[in-house]
Amino acid sequence: MTAELIDGKKIAQQMQAEIALEVADFTKRTGVIPCLYIVMVGDDPRSRTYVQRKMKALESVGMRHQFWHWLSWDEHGHGMLVDDIRHYCSLKWCHGMLVQLPLPPEYDPFPIFDAIAPEKDVDVFNPVNVGLLLQGRPRLKPCTPAGIVEMLKRSGINLPGKKVAVINRSNVVGKPLSSMLIQDCNEYANATVTICHNKTPPDLLKAITLSADIVVVAVGIAGFLTADMVRPGQVIVDVGTNHLPDTNKLVGDVDFGPVSEIVAAISPVPGGVGPMTVTMLLRNTLEAAKMQVQ
Ligand code: NAP
């Protein structure tokens, strides 16, 4: 492998140590321990694993969590869930509200996102927070996009003036990431961004990835970004999480072996964007508590 490894796991550990100090200071000054309410709808084993990882990380930096497992998703469940989210958001001790995705397909996510109080919206799904982000004045920054930006920044990879290809247009990754990357601010942005998706013709997609300085791929298909789609000097950020059918091994969207022989730097899966996302959730829970308590 010739590419430099972008070590998201190590950066996340450093950041979590910094956050733990800030939490201790906040709790000492205010007497308040920041608390995140986590809602999981349904019983997807992978969601369960992600939720457990988030709860462990919260504990490790001195914060609290309340896990709320919503198992009934019949025709009444959706409305009751929305009401309950509103109720829990009204509680003083709930500083952040996280709804673990994906939701069951029968659920319309938008009324659920609308019900999360903007000041407690640690994943930045409420339209008020999405609008503030788009205008370049976010209260909280969405976890996965902010984790990607912070990982690049702490790896010494500059964004201003760079051409970035983002293969994803979802509300979780592509849209918020592109709106962060294009902002004209001193805070590490000013990139030129092209967004690709399922309807981007393969030839055009390849031309875009080959012309980019940085490629962010988040399609959810193992081995999607192949060696013929990259060139020397590029930085590759792999967001995808895929479990191989025979071994259940976790892999990203990049055909890692061949691609890492060509490009300049690459973030691995596991150990790249995943730990950064969890770390930004910790950061947002603390920031949300600060906004409400101070
Ligand atoms: P999603 O909503 O399914 O989005 C997938 C995106 O990929 C869509 O925009 C889709 O285009 C695009 N796409 C699919 N096939 C394509 C193709 N052949 N060519 C070009 N674009 C294609 O999923 P998501 O929630 O954004 O997550 C994407 C991946 O990132 C998943 O593997 C997820 O597990 C992972 N993820 C990881 C983290 C982390 O912290 N590590 C966080 C979030 C997500 P259309 O919109 O046209 O369908």
Structure overview:
- α1 (8-30) runs parallel beside α10 (273-293) and α6 (143-154) crosses α10 (273-293).
- This protein has helices at residues 8-30, 45-60, 77-89, 109-115, 127-134, 143-154, 174-181, 202-211, 256-260, 273-293, and strands spanning 4-5, 35-41, 64-70, 96-99, 163-167, 192-196, 214-217, 235-238, 242-243, 250-251, 265-266.
- It is of the alpha/beta class and 294 residues long.
- A 6-stranded parallel beta sheet has the order 1-11-8-7-5-6, sandwiched between helices.
- It is built from 10 helices and 11 strands.
- Helix content is 42%, strand content 15%.
- The structure holds NADP nicotinamide-adenine-dinucleotide phosphate.
- NADP nicotinamide-adenine-dinucleotide phosphate binds at residues 144, 167-170, 172-174, 196-200, 205, 218-220, 239-242, 273-274, 277.
What Rg is obtained from the alpha carbons, in whole angstroms? 19 Å
Low-confidence stretches: none
Count of DSSP-assigned helices? 10
Span between termini: 49 Å
Shape, principal axes of CA atoms: globular
Mean pLDDT: 95
Summarize the main sheet: 6 strands, parallel
Walk across the major sheet and give the strand order. Answer: 1-11-8-7-5-6
Care to give the gist of this entry?
By secondary structure, the protein is of the alpha/beta class. It has ten helices and eleven strands.
What tags apply to this protein structure?
six-stranded parallel sheet, 294 residues, binds NADP nicotinamide-adenine-dinucleotide phosphate, three-stranded parallel sheet, 10 helices, globular, 42% helix, single chain, alpha/beta
